Amino acid sequence: MNLSDMNIAVVGSGAVGGYYGGMLAHAGCKVRFLMRADLAAVRERGLTIHTHGETVEVPRVDAFGTTAEIGPVDLVIIALKTTANAALEELLPPLLGEKTALLTLQNGLGNEEFLAERWGGERVMGALCFVCLNRTAPGVIDHFDAGSISVGEFRRPASPRVQAVVDAFGRAGIESRAVENLVTERWRKLLWNIPFNGLSIAAHGATVADVLADDGLRKVARDLMDEALDAARRLGHEIPDAFADHQIDRSYSMKRYKPSSMIDWQEGRPVEVEAIWGEPWRQGVAAGATMPRLEMLYRILQQATKGRHA
Amino acid sequence: MNLSDMNIAVVGSGAVGGYYGGMLAHAGCKVRFLMRADLAAVRERGLTIHTHGETVEVPRVDAFGTTAEIGPVDLVIIALKTTANAALEELLPPLLGEKTALLTLQNGLGNEEFLAERWGGERVMGALCFVCLNRTAPGVIDHFDAGSISVGEFRRPASPRVQAVVDAFGRAGIESRAVENLVTERWRKLLWNIPFNGLSIAAHGATVADVLADDGLRKVARDLMDEALDAARRLGHEIPDAFADHQIDRSYSMKRYKPSSMIDWQEGRPVEVEAIWGEPWRQGVAAGATMPRLEMLYRILQQATKGRHA
């Protein structure tokens, strides 16, 4: 499998899809984008990515308004918000050939399962994106920090096709690596997202610096990590205590960073409550974990974001 | 002790002080009010209380801008927000004669202790107000629901002076009763205020009906009650489980009622975070209780209301 010979579709071309898909296109991959709001602008002016002080221009972009126009591809990169997953039921079928692979770049837990249940687990890969992006105008993406991607198979060790995806991202200038256990990596990322994204909304706009500066709130953040850590271990993921400590320590350098969920919340957009809090809580409880803080945070966030539609 | 012969001062003449003090004045008690924002209006037009479809006018009100002008009295009724307690250090001394009694109508835990530490426990009484009030204009108070008051001594059984206060409120048309253990009553009230006032802010404006309508959030409210119940019992207060159940059941009739803390929060005023969440959490933890939900709620509310000054 070599991505430069393959047809790739990107479904969900917001900041994440536009950035990772745009960088692949810029490196010569054949990428077709499903777009809604930005379709006309991107057809006219292409994609512009501001990254590390440089500007990457992708002047000619294959952008489409429906997946029927795109047709079957070898790889579908899914970058929709998880709150819009129901839309995939109609969006994906036109893209699927017999061997089409699915790669979800989405946040939290439950997305690989969603795809596997509908279109077969053997198609499914997943990736974690560690990246700070902003879509600043139609077709214009600001990439202002990090950017690495970790790619793995669904419930299997990394495979040659995972390595092909990793290589393609690498050639596109994106730090990338294959992971042997995708779900373990998802739990490691959740250890940070659960407290920092969640408390930022519940405490009405608390930045990372706010949480860390308040002894009481920092302890609550660490307690939430411990609940997630216990759940992850019961589910078979070996994550050491030191990793949780490191998640707190490394956060000091983020200063007044606003977690992505807080920005979603402030801008009136749907928040990925089920993927980041609901599903980890349900899975942890099913494995026998006691998670009173996560349960309360989940219920608070559900209520606070009610009525926001994808 | 007969309140109709006594000089009474009301410190903190917002809705609570204006209502209870105004009703006593209307019934013939000699009440002097410390006022700030409403001073000029009340000197000119008196107090107006809309209650149960009637209007109670108190045309001539003794209102003062400083406690030095009021001078020593027999009874001080304290109705300041607990977030302004520090101001009492300067406000109270001019009102104190050798036997001046202090009656705090304030919310939550720690207020009697605050007074006792500074001016002696033998002066201190406390009361719980079950009342829905709104100050709608300077000197104008809307009394739209309930109104009863429960009065007790600080760390002693009810005394003759408690009965005198109860009788005076009764003659003023306010349902009142003496309680043998004031702190037990405070915990019983907190069982409701901790979850419903707290979740209303953390979940960004959840009314009583919102909390009850969501199975998950209602369970969290009940779990918070159980934490408070365990703390109260460890501190020697006998409150049955059935009382907590009743607090949920009776809440259905409140419908879309906004807890007072939610209104404070929405109007940018200080929220009584320490009295309602901080002090109960500290006392419960000191008694050996495990209160992860209350701790998290307290820390979230502290952060959410930071920078609001009394």
Could you give the topology of this structure?
2 copies of one chain form a homodimer.
Chain A: E1 7-11, H1 15-26, E2 30-34, H2 39-45, E3 47-51, E4 54-58, E5 62-64, H3 67-70, E6 73-78, H4 88-91, E7 96-104, H5 111-119, E8 124-137, E9 140-153, H6 160-171, E10 176-178, H7 182-202, H8 208-213, H9 215-234, H10 241-251, H11 260-266, H12 273-286, H13 292-304
Parallel strand pairs in A: 1-2, 1-6, 2-5, 3-9, 6-7, 7-8, 9-10
Antiparallel strand pairs in A: 3-4, 8-9
Nutshell version of this structure?
The structure is a homodimer. Chain A is α/β, with parallel strands linked by helices and about 300 residues long.
Helix content of chain A: 40-55%
- How many helical stretches of chain A? 13
Number of domains of chain A: 2
Secondary-structure element order of chain A, N to C: EHEHEEEHEHEHEEHEHHHHHHH
Estimate the global geometry of chain A from the Cα principal axes.
globular
CATH superfamily of the largest domain in chain A: NAD(P)-binding Rossmann-like Domain
Please tell me about this protein's structure.
Two copies of one chain form a homodimer. The first copy, chain A, is of the alpha/beta class and 310 residues long. Chain A has two domains: 3-180, Rossmann fold; 184-304, N-(1-d-carboxylethyl)-l-norvaline Dehydrogenase, domain 2 (Orthogonal Bundle), CATH 1.10.1040.10. In chain A, 45% of the residues lie in helices and 22% in strands. Chain A has 13 helices and ten strands. In chain A, strands 1, 2, 3, 4, 5, 6, 7, 8, 9 and 10 form a ten-stranded mixed beta sheet that branches. In chain A, strand 6, helix 4 and strand 7 (96-104) form a beta-alpha-beta unit. In chain A, helix 7 (182-202) crosses helix 11 (260-266). The model of chain A has no long low-confidence stretch (mean pLDDT 95). At the A-B interface, helix 7, helix 9 and helix 13 of A face helix 7, helix 9 and helix 13 of B.
